[in-house]
Design brief:
- The protein is mainly beta.
- It is 5% helix and 61% strand.
- The chain has one helix at residues 2-10; strands spanning 20-21, 28-46, 50-61, 69-75, 82-88, 96-105, 108-118, 123-129, 134-139, 142-147, 154-173.
- Strands 1, 2, 3, 4, 5, 6, 7, 8, 9, 10 and 11 form an 11-stranded mixed β-sheet that branches.
Length: 175
């Protein structure tokens, strides 16, 4: 848990491929389906304060050059700062995903494994950030404070690669 709290406090980025626009007024389900070695994503304007949450479930995995992965990232307008999470299959045939905090702090990429999650499990995720960049991130019952610098009017990106992943009860709200 200390590792999780320390990483969340840093504020963290992930480069994501082609995207479509997403507007969420109410919870929805995003069935993200990408063939082997392909990715898919949707984006939504977000900020300066935002709440993102979803329950992520792996439906099917594709083998290839790109490992099966999925996640959600909140990025600043200039992409210098971002924070989110990603699940990634560490090797073909693995029985668990790596749960990673991903992001960018002042332009420097961060990618840190924080836990292993069995493939059959769901990931219950929520992140809240106020206009000053203060907030918290939650995975299941674990909660950690976070600070995300220079968000402004940024964007939230929901993505997957080399597999089918279902984001249930997906909400991205900027009050």
């Amino acid at each position: 848990m200390r590792k999780f709290q320390a990483l969340a406090a840093l504020g963290c980025a992930l480069c994501v491929g082609v995207s479509a626009n997403l507007a969420t007024a109410a919870p929805l389900t995003f069935d993200c389906d990408a063939a082997a070695n392909r990715s898919s994503s949707i984006t939504s304007p977000a900020g300066p304060s935002v709440r993102m949450k979803s329950i992520l479930r792996a439906v099917s995995l594709q083998s290839g050059r790109i490992v099966p992965n999925a996640g959600i990232v909140l990025s600043s307008a200039d992409n210098a700062n971002s924070l989110g999470f990603q699940i990634s299959l560490p090797a073909a045939g693995a029985q668990a995903f790596q749960l990673l905090l991903v992001g960018r702090a002042d332009g420097k990429p961060i990618r840190q494994a924080i836990a292993e999650v069995p493939i059959a499990n769901v990931i219950d995720f929520e992140m809240q950030v106020d206009a000053a960049g203060q907030g918290q991130v939650r995975f299941g019952t674990q909660v950690a404070p976070l600070r995300l610098g220079n968000l402004g009017l940024g964007k939230a990106t929901v993505f997957c690669g080399s597999g089918q992943f279902r984001f249930e009860n997906l909400e991205i709200v900027s009050p």
